[in-house]
Amino acid sequence: MTDRNIIELRGVEKRYGTFVAAAGINLDLKEGEFFSLLGPSGCGKTTVLRMIAGFQEPTKGSVLIDGQDMEGVPANNRPTNMVFQSYAIFPHLNVGNNVAYGLRGKAPKAEIDQRVAEALEMVELGGLQDRGAGELSGGQRQRVALARALIMRPKVLLLDEPLSALDKKLREQMQFEMRNLQQSLGITFVMVTHDQYEAMTMSDRIGVMFNGRLKQVDTPTTLYARPCDQQVASFIGEMNILPAQLLDETGDTLSINAAAFGRMEIERNPNVATSDRNMNIGIRPEQLEIAAEKPEDYPSTVQGTVSNVAFYGENIHYHIQVAGTETPISVSVPNYFHTVDFNRGDAVWLGLQGASVIDLGQSTE
Ligand code: ATP
User: Fold this and answer.
1) What residues does the ABC transporter domain cover (predicted)?
2) Which pLDDT band holds residue 361 (cuts at 50, 70, 90)?
């Protein structure tokens, strides 16, 4: 990845009649970056992608690619290429002709053949030119769609939910493959997804969208550790959200009184709007210790009762009902010893370090 901006969105807005699908979008994407637009269905991610591609013009603002304003530049004249959710592969054509499609008539046959062979090598389908597209598996079809886009040598590859049609195992495998491919080619990838894990495993940075607005743009680790508010916190991974009162603040340390856990000191989150007296805190389920006896080495503890146990194989999830909050607290424990230590109805203790508690800023309720 370089420091050079390859895509710049400046105050971009898209309206359909009076409906605002996207607004106030300002975004700089770096050359060679893997960027994901993440958000729930209908939040406007595809709309943003389509404005970069040139399938839609913004109602306001501008899209720059490689420093050039794209206003009025049709999709086929932009240095971008798009891979669609449905792949749009022609079933009656063989693999080679599918991949060559965009180059037909634009280059001599020998060059096309050479580039088809190269593109198929890139996606690990080397030598499959003559295979009928109808005979391919889901993962192979996805790779043909990628090869067909890559053969055009775009500066930016736009991907709209590229893996959503694949089953879980294959999807996870393709996530690694696509990330490796992107890194070895050094092309900028912009991917739309509603799958937080997909976005986190593949991207250098993620832009989280809600209701047409880009709420936070950060690395996966920062989004997870320092979400800008409750909505982003709950969308990226699981989060226990508890109300708290701000008692005092010294520098970057906040003294708070949190529901269930009581007084503790936590770190200020630079990504939230100023914390108010009534604030929220977030606790990731894996940051809590669960024990039969009161844990000694945790400054904050609370007693509770197990209300649910879910065995996931690699970890175990417990729901713990505690006094001071209506929703049970979710705890995730790695399955080190192949045992489920607690059952529904057991009395347990939870232990917490202030350092792992996330300041979610002012309460919006
Ligand atoms: P999904 O993951 O479901 O595709 P998304 O986040 O990509 O969702 P968009 O496809 O960008 O969302 O759509 C954003 C909003 O704009 C939706 O409410 C959608 O109904 C609306 N919308 C999209 N295209 C049009 C259109 N051509 N005319 C009117 N409304 C549209």
Assistant:
1) 7-236
2) very high
**d(CA 96, ligand 1 centre) in Å:** 33
The CATH H-level (homologous superfamily) assignment of domain 230-362 is: Nucleic acid-binding proteins (2.40.50.140)
Which pLDDT tens digit goes with each residue over 52-97?
A: 999 999 999 999 999 999 999 999 999 999 988 766 788 889 999 9
What pLDDT, on a 0 to 100 scale, did the predictor assign at position 86? Answer: 66
- How high is the ipTM of this complex? 0.94
What ligand 1 atom has the least distance to the C-alpha of 44?
11
194 in ligand 1 pocket by Cβ < 6 Å? yes
Whether residue 163 has pLDDT greater than 90: no
Q: Sorting pLDDT into bands at 50, 70 and 90, what band is 250?
A: very high
Long-range contacts of 124-132 (CB under 8 A, 24+ apart): 124/177, 125/95, 128/95, 129/94, 129/95, 129/96, 129/99, 130/94, 130/95, 130/96, 131/94, 131/95, 132/91, 132/94, 132/95
* Any atom of ligand 1 within 6 Å of the Cβ of 14: no
d(CA 210, CA 231): 9
192 Cα to the center of ligand 1, angstroms: 12
Q: How far apart are CA 219 and CA 22, in angstroms?
A: 22
Cα(36) to ligand 1 centroid in Å equals 17
Distance CA 266, CA 358 (A): 7
Please tell me if the CB atom of residue 18 comes closer than 6 angstroms to any atom of ligand 1: no
Domain residue limits, the chain: 5-225, 230-362
For the Cβ of 41 lying below 6 angstroms from any atom of ligand 1, the answer is: yes
